Amino acid sequence: MTLAILLGIFSGYPGRWAERLIHPNEEIIQTYSGVSGRLTVTRTGEQVNIYENGVLTHSSGNPLTNEELVHFTLCSHPDPRDILVIGGTCTGITAELMKYDCHRVDCIEPDPQVIRTAKKLNLLAEGYPNINYLRINPFHHLISDTATYDVVIVMLAGPQNLNLNRYYASSFFALARKHLGHSGMVTVMLPGTANYVSGNALDMLGPIYSAARKSFGQVALLPGENNYLMASDEKWTIDILHTLQERKIQTTFIRPGYFDENLLIARKSEMEQLLNQVFTANEEFRPKAFLGMINWWIGQFPLRLLWIFGAAALFIILLTLVGSKPESNAMFLLGAGASGLQIILLFLVQITAGTLYLFAGCLPAIFMTGLATGSWCFLRKRVGKILSSDTFIWLLFSFSGLLLLVISEWLAHPSGMTGLKTVLIFLISFIAAFSNGAVFARLASQPGDHANPGRIYAYDLMGAALGAIVFPLALVPLFGIKLAIGVISATGIVSLGLTKLVRKRS
After folding, report:
1. Angle, helix 452-470 to helix 304-321, in steps of 10 degrees
2. What is the rounded distance in angstroms from the CA atom of residue 354 to the CA atom of residue 35?
3. What is the pTM of this model?
4. What's the CA gap between 53 and 193, in Å, rounded?
5. What's the pLDDT band for 37 if we cut at 50, 70, 90?
6. Is residue 416 helix, strand or coil?
7. What residue ranges define each of the domains in the chain, with the CATH number in brackets?
8. What is the DSSP letter of 110?
9. What is the pLDDT of residues 249-276, one digit of tens each?
10. CB–CB of 35/135 below 8 Å?
């Protein structure tokens, strides 16, 4: 309370005070909650920046990136007339596109708020009648609209979260291909690697390259200020400078004396040798690129000691389980499954609703409510009769996992009905937590052992800690979300078997 009062006195608005700490040398224009989380708009001189959850995703006044992305792509197409641009509304990319006398340019943002913000800041190219700003989800547009494009450009920050990861998955490339005409091309912008591609960077780039190759016959990665992955069914040659001269297009950076086309071709060949290894294609349910992006970021920090401590903690937990009572192990397994299920549900919320932050507090609150409700119902004499069957309360947990497994594809599909999908995710979280709470009350209320409730609670927490580590850091990266859900569902059945073992012994 004291901290809140002080913040109110000295800043007037605590959120603004916190934003000024994060962006000390920038003028904060606006900050608000958007579809993808917290969006902050700042100004540095004449440059406008948009941060998504603290990560720079849009920046105006960067002609080098605009020229590379536009001219690398459009110079490789014989007649680029109809263009779809996903992202990049505030960057000024439309000015470069209009140098090609495009017939139509459709601009879409994953978060429509970015378009509204850009309009307020006069960053939209509204003087061109053939530029359309569509305030609709890009996937909804590609699914519901029958428009055909010559070029699809994705100008986003990379697979930094599970929502953005969808634009680099094989399903997106397949969907975009349906909207391409003859010689159509898709180009996605990826974080740059300069002159050296590390192993972590390759783990992010490789799955996207493999995902594009599932839908297109010709795929290449052109390095520059950023990396630009280009995919088409038709062969193309890199003859950018000659094409610019032939079409009489004026540029600032992509021109003789600054841009070396031979060096670009040489670096392209080096990238192809690296990317022609066997990589698992990036998918929505196997987000290899997203996980590679996280590892790339973590690789900047010396975390080797943390792995040692993590391995030591895991060893202690496993050592604790050896020789312990079966009901303790049963609670441990169920706690691990319940914790892992919540992590995966958070993943699905971000894939489905496009945001993790607006619902990050709701999902744990619903889970805790389910735990309390399950324990309370079991301990009530009248209601407890329904839950007295071990088989029922344990299989209820497995049922929640199986239900999630059945509808997971539908949840991730960009077909709308976000509200209904979110409610179902919350319902599954409540059912799993309700079962977990009832099991805890069942095992902790066994007579004759006063230390039993504390021991059961300790094993529940240890299992929850292990599940929060193993599922997102091991099972999901190695085998995907679906198999992880299947393992979670199986923990309920195995836990039930351990309790049946206790019954037979007694």
Report:
1. 140
2. 6
3. 0.78
4. 23
5. low
6. coil
7. 2-58 (no CATH), 60-295 (3.40.50.150), 302-505 (1.20.1250)
8. S
9. 999 899 888 888 888 888 888 888 888 8
10. no
